[in-house]
Structure to design on (322 residues):
């Protein structure tokens, strides 16, 4: 998707006040409004201006957008085309989400807008009526071991609030969250009543925590399955062997490497992946590691192997033009 620089679209600095944003929007609206503009791309430009104004005039959306800009700045350069928001850029923030999808006002906004703000915040014109509080969404990162065994984590979330002077600030909120056994990436933990407060005495909304699995030094996650590289020597791969394998649950398991194994071959340990309604598996990907020829004896051993077992791994290349 294409990155949208909302400040550039309105022609204002990031430090611009709400009055400056409002003035810039009015000026551009007069220029590109389809009813009066003679510009060929007036409708498209007006849509971009409306989108930028929608974000920058809303204090919460603007704070979220600025948080992503800070993440981008800390990571260096980025591509405007094919842009992807930094991974986990929203972790630790509580965002308001309504339950009814995008509003009609946002229907024509860009993919970039939708990817950042998800469901549009529902506008309430009557604050004195009883309305259930909005649900909030945040992300929580757990390790593979925590997913397998379950745990309790203390998390600190940053939520937007107005201070005594009416300025928008972040408030830290600490919660103790029970991580059940078997959570998998993309699942949600619902904390009832931990969302936004209701109006007129109505119940508070809920807080939904999206599970994300932290990168691991040994295992990588694909769905509910885990993958691990298993280094073996050429002798072990050729003749076969039995190897003790450490598994994510802390137990060692004996695995048989069959004779004539090849690099990239996968060995499956059934049900040793992430747990859940259906258990994932642990896949061992064979990686053949050559002993370094540091000594004369090893060099002679390699030479002897080449003589007694001549082998050309590039035989398929013969007869083909380069």
């Amino acid at each position: 998707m294409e990155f949208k620089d909302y400040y550039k679209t309105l022609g204002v600095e990031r430090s611009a006040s709400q009055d400056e944003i409002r003035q810039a929007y009015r000026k551009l609206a007069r220029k590109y409004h389809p009813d009066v503009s003679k510009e060929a791309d007036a409708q498209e430009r007006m849509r971009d201006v409306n989108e930028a104004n929608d974000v920058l005039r809303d204090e919460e959306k603007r704070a979220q957008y600025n948080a992503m800009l800070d993440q981008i700045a800390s990571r260096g350069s980025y591509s405007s085309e094919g842009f992807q928001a930094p991974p986990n850029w929203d972790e630790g923030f509580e965002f308001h989400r309504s339950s009814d999808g995008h509003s009609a006002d946002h229907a024509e906004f860009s993919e970039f807008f939708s990817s950042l703000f998800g469901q549009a915040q529902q506008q309430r014109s009557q604050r004195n009526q009883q309305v259930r509080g909005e649900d909030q969404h945040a992300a929580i990162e757990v390790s593979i071991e925590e997913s397998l065994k379950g745990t309790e984590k203390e998390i600190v979330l940053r939520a937007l609030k107005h201070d005594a002077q009416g300025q928008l600030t972040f408030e830290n909120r600490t919660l103790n969250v029970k991580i059940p056994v078997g959570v998998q990436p993309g699942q949600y933990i619902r904390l009832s009543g931990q969302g936004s407060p209701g109006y007129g005495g109505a119940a508070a909304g809920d807080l939904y925590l999206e599970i994300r699995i932290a990168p691991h030094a040994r295992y990588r996650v694909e769905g509910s399955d885990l993958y691990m590289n298993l280094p073996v020597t050429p002798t072990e791969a050729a003749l076969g062997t039995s190897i003790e394998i450490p598994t994510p649950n802390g137990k060692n398991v004996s695995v048989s490497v069959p004779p004539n194994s090849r690099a990239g071959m996968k060995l499956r340990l059934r049900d040793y992946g992430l747990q859940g309604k259906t258990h994932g598996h642990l896949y061992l990907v064979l990686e053949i590691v050559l002993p370094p020829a540091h000594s004369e004896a090893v060099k002679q051993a390699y030479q002897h192997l080449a003589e007694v077992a001549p082998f050309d791994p590039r035989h398929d290349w013969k007869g083909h033009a380069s």
Remarks:
- Helices lie at 6-10, 18-32, 42-56, 59-75, 111-117, 144-149, 234-239, 296-308.
